[in-house]
From TrEMBL:
EC number: 3.1.2.4
Protein's name according to its UniProt entry: 3-hydroxyisobutyryl-CoA hydrolase
One protein family per Pfam: ECH_2
Catalyzed reactions: 3-hydroxy-2-methylpropanoyl-CoA + H2O = 3-hydroxy-2-methylpropanoate + CoA + H(+)
Organism whose genome encodes this protein: Nocardiopsis ansamitocini
Domain Enoyl-CoA hydratase/isomerase: 18-338
């Protein structure tokens, strides 16, 4: 007898609620191409269904909403040069933009680990709920990549330069810091999430329902670190950022410098440039267009496959970056990551001019 395989995404209508549950708990619900397609299909159907008043996105298991994209599949695509990674990002980024513009409220339960692609399916939602267990972050510079899925849009709009700090260091944001940075709207204790979901099934206003169960989160760290963060990251290059951090008297600033030095120098430079650009871009869609260019360029380079190898494949935590230091990253290498891609633009925004 054949055992049925559980679906990777469960999409059901419960009362007034369209409920999307990412269902790969052993992989912390890491996103695959099929999962992205299934979510998009459900959103298409529910947009036309008058019984669905709002949508809920959550994750199966106790570990978190979503750990990001299925990095092993992206790694295999980068090595094979088969175009699967580019196709995945095209579909994923299109879904991120759709979540942002969806005509019905989308509520995201950002419980537990919410990294990379997990941020993309949650932090663009209309009502974003964190819990005492939330760990929200964009860790891409540690694998030779950049904050994508609209990460540059979100982090560039955080107060001051908190988003730059989070992006370059891969800092994980707890509930209070996620709220401060604008990646979440309400802190609701994890034990109260079922009650919130029940309110949504009954047709309650999503924002009001979340606010009715919200409580003050445990104090974060970024608010008290704003002084040195805003001063140190107000530099034109990664080399200058590192020097400014090292010169600060605060131990946390020097710890940030140490963390940055472990990341891909190329990714750091590309990320800093992407955040600078994103601050001037008009909308999420145009930021996604620029992220797509950079993602495809980094995929073809050395550091992405090396970073994933060290972190996920061999797990030796000893990536050999090329070039190995921020001082050696050529400006033209960074510029090339944002050059238009003739015949292969994402094209979501109003303008894809470099």
């Amino acid at each position: 007898m054949t055992t049925a395989t559980a679906p990777e995404v469960v999409c059901v209508i419960e009362g007034a609620l369209g409920h999307v549950t990412l269902n790969r708990p052993r992989a912390i619900n890491a996103l695959t191409a099929d999962m992205v397609a299934d979510i998009a299909t459900a959103l298409d159907a529910w947009e036309r269904d008058d019984t669905v008043r709002c949508v809920l996105v959550d994750g199966a298991g106790e570990r978190g909403l979503c750990a990001g994209g299925d990095i092993r599949t992206l790694y295999a695509s980068a090595r094979a040069r088969n175009g699967a990674a580019e196709a995945f990002w095209r579909a994923e980024y299109t879904l991120n933009a759709r979540i942002k513009r969806y005509p019905k409220p989308i509520v995201a339960f950002m419980d537990g680990i919410v990294m990379g692609g997990g941020v993309g399916v949650s932090a663009h939602a209309a009502v974003r709920v964190v819990t005492e267990r939330s760990q929200v972050g964009m860790p891409e510079t540690g694998i030779g990549f950049l904050p994508d899925v609209g990460g540059t849009y979100l982090l560039s709009r955080a107060p001051g330069l908190l988003g730059t700090h989070a992006a370059l260091t891969s800092h994980r944001l707890g509930a209070a810091d996620a709220l401060l940075c604008g990646l979440a709207d309400h802190h609701v204790p994890a034990d109260d999430l079922p009650a919130l979901a029940e309110k949504l099934r009954a047709g309650a206003d999503p924002g009001e329902a979340a606010a009715s169960l919200a409580t003050p989160p445990t104090e974060g760290t970024l608010d008290r670190d704003r002084l040195w963060i805003d001063a140190a990251y107000a530099q034109a290059t990664v080399v200058e950022v590192l020097a400014a951090l090292q010169a600060r008297p605060e131990p946390a600033a020097r710890a940030a410098a140490d963390a940055i030095r472990t990341k891909s120098p190329t990714s750091l430079a590309v990320t800093l440039r992407a955040l600078e650009q994103a601050r001037t871009l008009p909308d999420l869609e145009t930021c996604l267009d620029h992220e797509y260019r950079a993602a495809c360029a980094l995929l073809a380079g050395h550091d992405f496959t090396e970073g994933v190898r060290a972190a996920v494949i061999d797990k030796d935590r000893n990536p050999q970056w090329l070039p190995p230091t921020p001082e050696e990253v050529a400006p033209e290498t960074v510029a090339a990551c944002f050059a238009p891609r003739p015949g292969d633009e994402l094209g979501l925004g109003r303008s894809t001019t470099a």
